[in-house]
Amino acid sequence: MYAVVDIETTGGNARFGKITEVAIFLFDGEKIVDEYSTLIDPECPIPEFITRLTGITNEMVEDAPKFYEVAKEIVEFTEGHVFVAHNVNFDYKFIQAEFKRLGYEYKRETLCTVRFSRKVLPGHESYGLGKITKALGISLDNHHRAAADARATVDLLKVGLNQPNAEKILSSFLKGQRVGKEARKLLPETTISELPETCGVYYFHDSEGEILYVGKSVNIRQRILQHLNERTRKATDMKRIMADVTWEETGSELVALLLESHEIKRHQPPFNVKQRRNAYNYGIFQTLELDGYIRLHHGPVVKGKEPLAVFATEGAAKKVLEKLTEHFELCQKLNHLDPYQNQSQKPCWHYNLKECQGACIGEEPPQSYNPRVVKAIRAMNYGMDDFLIIDEGRTAEERAVVRITQGRYSGFGFADLNLLEGQVDELTACTKTYSDNREVVRIIRGYLKTHNVEQIIPLSA
Predict the structure, then answer these.
(1) I need a surface site. Which of 234, 301, 392, 442 has the fewest CB within 10 A?
(2) Does a structural domain hold residue 379?
(3) What are the two backbone dihedrals, phi and then psi, of residue 203, each rounded to the nearest 5 degrees?
(4) Contact by Cβ (8 Å): 84, 111
(5) Neighbours of 329 (CB within 10 A)
(6) Are strands 200-205 and 211-217 parallel, antiparallel or unpaired?
């Protein structure tokens, strides 16, 4: 049985947002057998932009039950069923967060209809609920209200389940969450029951306590069980000598990525073959020549030359350098990008287009040229030299702190929530020193581009 869920909330972050509406349809794979829907008083104001999106106003929830008043019904209604939602992590995390505030740990097997649809219904331009339902002719009349979205998700799930390969794909999604016979043979029941459904880093150990494998996941329990259920040659070889599993919760996914990278480099686990290989073998470098100009160039990463940024291919490195050269009006010739590179007396091509100010032929002095190069370098890294990244902590009363000093990663730690209102020195004192390297730069830059962190605090002007 599937419990198909949709919620509406006061915001996008489960730590701070509250649920304003919940709808649940019990679906047996062919038909809806029961349903539940209610508005919920979030006990906080609903932002105007949320009201514009959902149509739910403060007046509508004024007399609605509070979450603790419907919590028991939600537990009983979903008990023993697979928790299904479109982008399930959003709905599931909000439901879990509401229960956690009540001191209750809510756990269900989950199924994401976004991931499931991509597998069983490939080739669609978009898998957002509005677009995929329209493409499939599924009715969705009151989008962004819980009952309407949940009902459309039921219909989408039904279409997916009727595809030829659905049973196999569904089994693979759910198998990794289930405690199978092999998991019970490999780990004590107490360890299995303690596996947290939180973000962090986990370790597989042999009988001597040596680390065999280090991994990171936003759901430690689910990922460890997936490993134990895998039947690949690598998984089988590791399970043959595995004796224990440990973990470290981080709250922040960024911290988990940084800690995982550090631990793999530190311990060199035998089953972390892919992570130990460096797939970023090209970089952008800087040199300061005798004529006083800072020059940039791209090329292979070699020992003794520290790159400003690293890339998987030489083409990717060249493309970024070309964009920086154009955006900051740098000289093609000084950056080894000019078609006439070997003709030293000729200006670069960009000079003819009035996109270079003449550094290549001495018309622009280093004093005015180099500051733009420095800006380009900063843009390639983090955009500023000294700052703190504040992200989700391991508990509601804590925040993760990642520190960047003089453009280089210097470590992370955890700070009490109250310290955010105090002196910055108190936050920096909470961080533990970790080594900077090109992999860390890639991780932080990539994360900041694709994720929203709670706060960035500049440490210098």
Answers:
(1) 234
(2) no
(3) -135, 130
(4) yes
(5) 16
(6) antiparallel
Last residue of a domain, one of 145, 174, 203: 174
List of residues 6+ apart from 451 with CB closer than 8 A = 253, 254
Q: Report how many domains make up the chain.
A: 4
Q: How far apart are CA 305 and CA 41, in angstroms?
A: 59
What secondary structure, in 3-state letters, does 201-257 show?
Answer: EEEEECCCCCEEEEEEECCHHHHHHHHHHCCCHHHHHHHHHCCEEEEEECCCHHHHH
Q: How open is the CA angle 100-103-109, to the nearest 5 degrees? A: 50
Mean pLDDT score of the chain: 90
Burial class (CB in 10 A: 0-12, 13-18, 19+), 181: exposed
- The predicted pLDDT at position 9 comes to 96
Residues 61 and 190 in one domain: no
In terms of Cα–Cα distance, which of 50, 67, 177, 54 is closest to 112? 177
Q: Which residues of the chain fall below pLDDT 50?
A: none
Residues 19 and 145 in one domain: yes
**Would you report the helix, strand and coil content of the chain in percent, each value rounded to 5?**
40, 20, 40
Residues 6+ away with beta carbon under 8 Å from 343: none
131 and 212, same domain (yes or no):
no
382 in any annotated domain: no
**pLDDT at residue 7, rounded to an integer:** 97
Catalytic-residue membership of 144: yes
In the prediction, which pLDDT does 438 show? 77
The boundaries of the domain holding residue 315 are 282-371
Among 81, 86, 144, 227, the active-site one is 144
Structure-token pair, residue 437? 């390297």
3-state secondary structure of 111: strand
The number of beta carbons lying within 10 Å of the beta carbon of residue 345 is: 7
Place of tokens 């992570």: 275
What's residue 131's pLDDT?
93
